[in-house]
Design brief:
With 241 residues, this protein is of the alpha+beta class. It contains nine helices and four strands; from the N terminus they run E-H-E-H-E-E-H-H-H-H-H-H-H.
Length: 241
């Protein structure tokens, strides 16, 4: 099957968690909004969002089209793709566990975004700087250690002893942990430098995932959009205490 991924073409955002799963498995997919021509580009994505014929309309990208299916929400997309791309164990309990972890990662991503947009997404960062600085203090001092500690403990608790977070082999959750660590390193380099020695398992997992041939090739290609200050993970030095 050829998958169609719909996401904003200038940022990694939530779509990147889906994109790296497709890239790691060399899935046949097209990144619709990043292409030009008929039936492609951002306008096509917006038409999909507004299509009255879709029985289960998505609220926002990322969106995946798989045949007649139209699937939205990052964790939901990965729940669908996981077994089809070989990125989740076969047992139902393991699949639900992977989905639970992915939903938890989504919570971290949302909190990270809200550091630089604590009042409203419709306001610019410079319009909420004071509130952002206050929120960043709590996030870097309290929430980041809590989130990273949880994933470190979960990784160490995998009884399969594989070095991965779910089961014996790489899963989409491991790929998402890689992306989360990479994003936090970009947004909060000083904080991460201070915290990472406490979470050696996550650092090792990040490095192991990054070294996989398919993902490594993707990361060094033009297909990998650089982190930037229009994205979820943004680096504002004043927020990185």
């Amino acid at each position: 099957m050829r998958y169609e991924l719909y996401y904003w073409p200038e940022i990694q955002g939530r779509g990147e968690f889906v994109r790296i799963a497709l890239e790691e498995t060399r899935a046949d997919y097209v990144d619709v909004a990043r292409l030009s021509g008929r039936g492609k580009g951002v306008r096509t994505m917006m038409r999909l969002l507004e299509d009255p014929e879709i029985g289960h309309p998505p609220f926002a990208p990322p969106i995946l089209k798989a045949g007649k299916l139209v699937i939205a929400q990052t964790a939901n997309i990965l729940l669908y793709l996981g077994p089809r791309l070989g990125l989740v164990p076969k047992a139902e309990a393991s699949r639900l566990w992977a989905h639970q972890l992915q939903l938890t990662i989504a919570d971290v991503v949302a909190e990270t975004h809200d550091v630089h947009h604590p009042i409203a997404g419709s306001l610019y960062y410079h319009q909420q700087k004071r509130e952002s600085r206050r929120r960043a203090g709590y996030f870097t001092a309290e929430r980041m250690p809590q989130w990273l500690g949880y994933f470190e403990h979960t990784l160490a608790g995998n009884r399969k002893g594989s070095g991965y977070i779910v089961g014996r082999a790489l899963s989409y959750v491991d790929l998402s942990i890689f992306q989360l660590i990479a994003g936090l390193r970009y947004a909060f380099p000083k904080t991460m430098q201070r915290l990472e020695p406490k979470y050696p398992g996550l650092v090792l997992l990040h490095d192991k995932v990054a070294a996989r041939p398919n993902l490594s090739a993707y990361l060094s290609s033009e297909r990998r959009i650089p982190f930037n200050e229009n994205d979820i993970f943004r680096h504002y030095p004043e927020l990185d205490a």
